[in-house]
Specification:
- The protein is mostly helical and 612 residues long.
- The protein has 25 helices and 5 strands.
- It has a 5-stranded mixed sheet with strand order 3-2-5-1-4.
């Protein structure tokens, strides 16, 4: 066991606190919309922090510290190669999914293509997300094995139980609110360890110049070694996995859809990629860099192994109590990723499996009950995958093999579907089918990838599942892109312009007009804070004084968000409404039902924001 008794008390208290925190926010969950999308209440800053908390999994601290110890600064490449997807996200994908009101990626495939495409996507995405849940549980098993000496599967099982409890209780609201706390904690812990580590080894100059010369490189070596090289990381992480994470990871999509508006969703993504992700890259790799320097300057690390370097270095750098907080941060990373994925699996199971196949119409409470049961089941199935990941011996290798194999076909079909109007339903189905066949073939016959790997001077790096863990992604992308382009010209588009409105880039303005029920008012204004009265018998519209209308640059019929005046709530206490004729007095008149749904019935003032 590592650490002092106080550390384990802190970790235990943290577990209990997060469980209580998550369960507390269950009171905001009254419907499936609340369970899956948090009522679409949240501000951009909450979305940004929760997104980075979701992206930084428990596996991140363990695997990137390992890579940082072995390869240096280039370990950050995976986290810093997402920026070129921003235009596609901000101006294409986020507006498409928000204004089209899709609730899941399979639903988008069903509307963009057909029911067959939806069914295929449902299966693939469920496999992808449940596999990701398993990776997170496995990582915590590895960490608890190094920390407590527990068998890896036991550690995985304990964390699976804890992660599933508060998701089942509170859904997306609990996920976002716990991720707010956990996101800050994991970033703070990683940066703190780097600062302390630099001081321990003698300051910045000693730290930097003691690192081996090839550890100073921002990018990995072009083609060596087979399991960590620039070409492989770019195609597997920068292309295939980035598309998977931002475009068809249902957990991420639900986070975008939880924003109070598409504008808030876009801001959240921009802040996350440009500000929080660089911090996260440093946070998750810092102990690997520090550990390497410590071993070179003679600071002892007892019985350390590179794959356990995060836990080992944390013990040396921290005092009793602080080490417990650092371990709690790694637990936070697990919770903030696994909770999102569990909630996402539940959303797809309910919206794309249960509802479409139900024999008769059911109440929303019936589906909410099923959503909670599916959350428990998703955690259980993810746990069953842990023994498979244990066979890889390295979390980085297990994660790379998984994402490189399953993401490319879906990534190609989704991007072409969203940004190329010509891409038809038949072309999509043929492309996904060929892609799935290619995935299986690449495992059975890894020599199929040999010519491409040899062209880049990269060896197999293993056999079977362990062969070409990165180059498999590049090969699959080439196969599926080639298939998609050919079939797009063979099979004509079978959807009309009206059927594609809002589902492809270039038709977003029309979709926005449909979403808002009229010509969008895109004039920029500011939030208005006004006294409020609540009306139970009115016309269901929000009426605000002329001064507030002017401040918001708003018109009658605009959508607005009525919120608690204190921005610290991040939109949790608020709800959407539509503007009616200006109020005659100096008070805003808000429908009683909206106030009750937004938990603002006791407020004397409210903040009102026009939705652009």
């Amino acid at each position: 066991m590592k650490g002092a008794p106080i550390d384990y008390v802190i970790i235990l208290v943290y577990f209990i606190a997060i469980l209580g925190f998550g369960v507390f926010f269950g009171k905001f969950t009254k419907s499936t919309k609340d369970f899956f999308f948090g009522g679409q209440r949240f501000s951009w800053w909450l979305i940004a922090v929760s997104l980075v908390a979701t992206t930084v999994g428990s596996y991140s601290f363990v695997k990137y510290s390992h890579m940082a110890y072995s390869y240096g600064i280039s370990s950050t490449q995976t986290y810093l190669n997402d920026w070129f997807w921003m235009p596609f996200l901000l101006f294409g994908w986020v507006p498409i999914i928000y204004y089209s009101k899709v609730q899941s990626i399979p639903e988008y495939f069903g509307r963009r293509f057909n029911q067959t495409a939806r069914n295929m996507t449902t299966v693939i995405i469920l496999l992808y997300m449940i596999g990701y849940i398993g990776i997170n549980f496995y990582t915590m098993g590895v960490a608890l094995h190094a920390l407590l000496g527990w068998p890896k599967f036991l550690g995985s099982a304990v964390t699976a139980v804890i992660a599933s409890v508060y998701v089942t209780a509170g859904g997306q609201t609990s996920v976002i609110m716990t991720d707010l706390f956990q996101g800050f904690l994991l970033l703070l812990a990683g940066v703190f360890l780097l600062i302390v580590g630099i001081d321990v080894v003698g300051g910045w100059e000693n730290f930097w110049w003691t690192l081996p010369a090839d550890h100073h490189h921002a990018l990995a070596h072009y083609n060596d070694p087979p399991k960590f090289n620039f070409v492989g990381i770019f195609w597997q992480d920068g292309v295939a996995n980035s598309i998977a994470a931002y475009f068809f990871n249902q957990g991420m999509i639900m986070r975008f859809m939880s924003a109070r508006s598409a504008d808030h969703g876009r801001k959240g993504i921009a802040v996350m990629i440009l500000f929080f992700m660089p911090l996260a890259a440093i946070a998750v790799a810092s102990t690997g860099w520090v550990g390497r320097v410590m071993t070179m300057v003679g600071i002892p690390l007892d019985n350390y192994r590179p794959e356990d370097i995060f836990v080992t270095v944390s013990v040396v750098l921290t005092h009793p109590g602080v080490f417990g907080l650092v371990m709690a941060a790694m637990t936070a990373a697990l919770m903030s990723t696994a909770d999102t994925l569990i909630n996402a699996v539940s959303a797809i199971a309910v919206n794309d499996v249960l509802k479409p196949n139900a024999r008769k119409e059911r109440s929303d409470s019936y589906y909410l009950s099923w959503a909670r049961w599916v959350s428990i089941g998703a955690a259980a199935v993810g746990l069953l995958l842990v023994p498979l990941y244990m066979s890889f011996g390295s979390i980085y290798a297990a994660h790379g093999a998984f994402t490189a194999a399953i993401t490319p076909p879906m990534a190609v079909v989704l991007l072409l579907g969203a940004f190329w109007k010509r891409f038809s339903s038949k072309a999509a189905i043929v492309t996904m089918t060929v892609g799935l066949i290619a995935i299986v073939a690449s495992f059975i016959f890894p020599e199929l990838i040999d010519p491409l790997a040899n062209l880049h001077g990269i060896g197999r790096g293993g056999t079977g599942l362990k062969a070409h863990i990165f180059m498999r992604a590049f090969w699959l992308i080439l196969v599926t892109v080639g298939t998609a382009v050919v079939t797009a010209f063979v099979f004509k588009q079978d959807k009309s312009e009206d059927q594609l409105t809002g589902l492809v880039w270039g038709s977003i303005q029309k979709a926005k007009a449909i979403f808002k029920g009229g010509v969008p008012n895109e004039a920029r204004g500011r939030r208005a804070r006004v006294p409020v009265t609540f009306d139970a018998d009115g016309d269901g519209l929000v009426h605000v004084p002329i001064s507030a209308m002017t401040r918001m640059a708003a018109k009658v019929g605009d959508l607005v968000y009525v919120d608690h005046p204190n921005p610290i709530y991040g939109g949790l206490r608020g709800g959407h409404g539509k503007l009616g004729e200006p109020a005659t007095g100096d008070h805003a008149v808000v429908p009683r039902l909206l106030a009750e749904e937004g938990f603002i019935t006791t407020q004397r003032r409210v903040a009102i924001e026009k939705i652009i």
